[in-house]
Amino acid sequence: MSVMTSPATSAHLSGDASSPAPQALPKPNLISVEEAKAMDVARMTDLFKAHMNPGQLHFMKLLGFHKIKVERAEGMFYIDQTGRKILDFFGGFGSLAFGHNHPRLLAARQKFQEENRHEIAIAFMSQYQAALTHNLAACSPGDLDMVFLGSSGSEAMEAAVKVAERAAGPKKPKIVYAENSFHGKTKGVLSITDGSLYRGDFRLVNNTVRVPFGDIDAIERAFRSDPAIGTIVLETVQGGGGIITAPTAFWQKLRALCDRYGVLWVADEVQCGYGRTGRFYAFEHHGVVPDVTALAKSLGGGKTAMGAMIARREVFMKAYGTPKSAMIHAPATFGGMGEACITSIEALNVLYDEKLIENAASTGAYLLERLEALHAKYPKIIKEIRGQGLMVGLEFQDFSQTLPMVLRPMVAMLDDKLKGSLSGFVGALLLRDYDVLVAFTEYNRNVIRLEPPLICSRENVDTFIAALDALLGRGIVAIVKDFVKSQMG
Ligand SMILES: Cc1ncc(COP(=O)(O)O)c(C=O)c1O
């Protein structure tokens, strides 16, 4: 419906009946949606340099990522501008449990749009938020019943640390975190993210205590010596650290220690949760329940931005249980938008209907078995295979000192950080020559991270293993020389 503006209305809008009508604003030089879709790699590169992150392009070039424009994405594959299908074993660092564009998620979103449903629900309650929070409580053990919705893992973890701080009370403000942890890049959780790369020279909160991951004695010493410690935050499986797990005995002792010393345990399941390890939460492998947890990544079904903090009811009520304290915690503008919620609701239903958690367990076991066979075949190249379900790390031997002397200056010239790290070379060549995408880790440059979608089949694993086998079969010197040559060209 078009709206006619009467002279009286425009005078009212301009505030002065005698002032001239405002001139139409010239439209800035805007790119349209169709032009964006049709853009070529050269123009994308120019705009990336002009408006986004010129320095990051350096790393994309090292890995060969800068040549690719994704045109479509379906299931386990990206399809690039040449029609090439790229097998996705990167999986958006765990954001793509359902693969790309799962048809049930597309259908739910399309129907929602066609019905003109509402998105922003700040004034009213939302039936979609109500259903999603119910579903998350239903998927969570114990009394992990109270849910805060946000739009990223960092936001979910900020909410987790805040609820714990308030529940622990003013006498216990200190937070324990682990070496090699990653909990996000926003300022609060950056203080418990253990990477000089990210921490830079930012001024961070200083009420933190750092312990080695998985070291129960160090944690007990910290709890015993400092009664101001009120919270401990740990990833159940460290992702950025290079897929590091701790045994069941550690988690059980941790739960007991937290109960003894009155410390709240926050389990960061942003990357390892949501079925990836073969249980909904990775901590469920160990028969223990934390006080607070957080999910994000695949919670949005790979179609939307969704994060959630889930707290035990008692903890939540201590923090925000009164009318006075309730509003401290009220969500941000985009927390729990309509279409995002219904995407997440449908995604949780698909996760169980399609038995994707069971598939993560069985296909993940198959992946580990096939990788162990490669480990046995190439013991001088592969150092260790580790992980659980479809969250797997492959650590290469450290070649920084053993690369043939002739290659060292060439490799050093390329990039100081990649020097001697086979994972970069292997990842780049897997993509270039075998159409396979893998991920890397921030803290350990010798590790390749494998987090394929939970829809991954044995056939996909076979394709990946055949590619890796063929590449490693060329030998280290050939791999490094080929990589160096590709960078010179
Ligand atoms: C364990 C963990 N926590 C928190 C985050 C932060 O999530 P986001 O990037 O959505 O802010 C990540 C992201 O990689 C993560 O792996």
UniProtKB/TrEMBL annotation:
Its cofactor is pyridoxal 5'-phosphate. Residues 1-26 are annotated as: Disordered. Residues 1-21 have a biased composition (Polar residues). InterPro entries: Aminotrans_3, Aminotrans_3_PPA_site, Class-III_PLP-dep_AT, PyrdxlP-dep_Trfase, PyrdxlP-dep_Trfase_major, PyrdxlP-dep_Trfase_small. Keywords: Amino-acid biosynthesis, Aminotransferase, Arginine biosynthesis, Pyridoxal phosphate, Transferase. The keyword Amino-acid biosynthesis applies. One of its GO terms (molecular function) is pyridoxal phosphate binding. The keyword DNA-binding does not apply. Coiled coil: none annotated. One of its GO terms (biological process) is L-arginine biosynthetic process. PANTHER family: ACETYLORNITHINE AMINOTRANSFERASE, MITOCHONDRIAL, AMINOTRANSFERASE CLASS III. Belongs to the class-III pyridoxal-phosphate-dependent aminotransferase family. This is Aspartate aminotransferase family protein. It comes from Tianweitania populi.
